[in-house]
Amino acid sequence: MIKSESKHQFGSKLRAVRERRGVTLKQVAGKAGVSESLVSQIERNKVSPSVDTLLSIADVLGIDYEYLFSDYRKKGKVEIVRASERSVTRDGLVTMSRLSVREEIPGEHSVDAFMLEVAVGGEKGDLEYGHAGREFGVILEGEAELLFGDDVYTLSGGDTVSFASRIPHILKNRGDSVLKAVWIVSPPRQSSHK
């Protein structure tokens, strides 16, 4: 338990529900197995309770956990990659500019996003093996050919494509100008830009 202003403000919600239900601090404390003073300090956001204590009090008051944590769910991290700060990788005829922030530990909904530019005659991918996850692409400019396993698909500016990455695949520039696309891979590959 931390003895200073609590960063997460659960106290006002706990107090409002307790008062609405006509329950005293003493009753809540007794049923939750904590001191009346502690419940009072939590309600005034003077201490940050342990998770066990917070959940015990919520259970005593019949508070849904979603409601209790709803304010916390409204906060999150926004990642911005400025155009001037994008990392760029060039591999032969392929240039990839990272559009997303690469997470240290990819989560369930993590993605890698790139601006992909493939020069005339260039290609990206491998027909020998695939990888876990899914890919989604938006062809911005140019003409492309997607070799996906034993199948071949033709793509033009404005087309979108989505597929399971486990099937070996190659994206080729089949036109006479630079192929530009936005490409998203989920989950991110372990080694960048593959």
UniProtKB/TrEMBL annotation:
Signal peptide span: none
Gene3D superfamilies on file: Jelly Rolls, lambda repressor-like DNA-binding domains
CDD domains registered for this protein in UniProt: cupin_XRE_C, HTH_XRE
PROSITE patterns xrefs: HTH_CROC1
Superkingdom in the source lineage: Bacteria
InterPro entries xref list: Cro/C1-type_HTH, Cupin_2, Lambda_DNA-bd_dom_sf, RmlC-like_jellyroll, RmlC_Cupin_sf, TransReg_Diox_bact_type
Ranges of residues in domain HTH cro/C1-type: 14-68
Keyword DNA-binding listed: yes
Keywords: DNA-binding
Statement: the UniProt record of this protein carries the keyword DNA-binding: yes
Name recorded for this polypeptide: MerR family transcriptional regulator
